């Protein structure tokens, strides 16, 4: 069996595959050449992340391809249903990067609440000449403890975001399409654990009026979850982080509500026009920005690689 990990795979995952007698091709193939490469090299398994697209044309053109894998949660770059109809195995790693994404959410929340995104930009330029002025301008900061965290989406990432919020002493609100209840367990270093029962709401209006910090953790959507009507219903001075997908939040409206002070600050890890974010977003000092790196930690990549390898080995043994 041959594996093309076209968007990369961790060393641990690669070694696990090799130990099982599976060949891992050390290639990165441009999208236009993926079909030819798969067919010319008799590739059985194609592993991707967000860069490589696996559409119907590729699936049709590569009849010997047996397994298509996505390192991560979202499958929007793969025509999953069609691939299954054509007899392909589809695998992904829905929980491997959840903690990494959740930690990035709070990295942005802390940066916004303490103006770290601005001070890190300005200190090298003005720290020597305007130290006291910056100290004064950045003093109107906020603690997260005691504030209300609103999480949109209650999958594995949303649950990890909630856990961190609980550990910081935040009040929790969760929004889902249909109300649901989950039992979340917080595990601590000394073996102790605490369970929390969290029930979500589907009432957007009530949710938005009560939350101070909003984290969007949903799959890709066909329309905005947060648009002008939703911004208008938020508390003044709200903070928002989007690590979900570009297009779940109206970026133009976001800028408008930042300028009106309705939104105190926002963070974007994903963008509508990715990988070419709009310049007004990149230049706005109220935004904390990162280049779609939610799951890009050494820890998450190792878990993703190992989980993909385990699934491939299991399927290989069944074939």
- Strand segment count: 13
Low-pLDDT windows of residues? none
Question: What order do the SSEs take from the amino end to the carboxyl end, as H and E?
Answer: EHEHEHEHEHHHEHEEEHEHEHEHEH
Q: What overall geometry do the principal axes of the alpha carbons give? A: globular
SS summary, helix count: 13
**Into which percent range does the helicity of residues fall?**
25-40%
Strand order of the largest sheet: 7-6-10-11-12-13
First-to-last CA distance? 11 Å
The rounded Rg comes to: 22 Å
Strand content: 15-25%
The assigned structural class equals alpha/beta
Quaternary status of these chains? single chain
Arithmetic mean pLDDT? 96
Question: Mind summarizing the main beta sheet?
Answer: 6 strands, parallel
Protein described:
The chain has 13 helices and 13 strands. With 319 residues, the chain is α/β, with parallel strands linked by helices. The strands form three sheets. Strands 7-6-10-11-12-13 form a six-stranded parallel beta sheet, sandwiched between helices. It has a five-stranded parallel beta sheet with strand order 2-1-3-4-5. Strands 8-9 form a two-stranded antiparallel sheet. Helix 10 (228-233) links the parallel strand 10 and strand 11. The longest helix has 21 residues, at 298-318.
Question: Topology of this protein?
Answer:
Blueprint: E1 2-5, H1 11-19, E2 23-25, H2 34-40, E3 45-48, H3 56-61, E4 67-70, H4 80-85, E5 89-92, H5 98-113, H6 116-126, H7 131-137, E6 148-152, H8 156-167, E7 171-175, E8 181-187, E9 193-199, H9 204-210, E10 213-216, H10 228-233, E11 238-242, H11 251-259, E12 263-268, H12 279-283, E13 287-289, H13 298-318
Parallel strand pairs: 1-2, 1-3, 3-4, 4-5, 6-7, 6-10, 10-11, 11-12, 12-13
Antiparallel strand pairs: 8-9
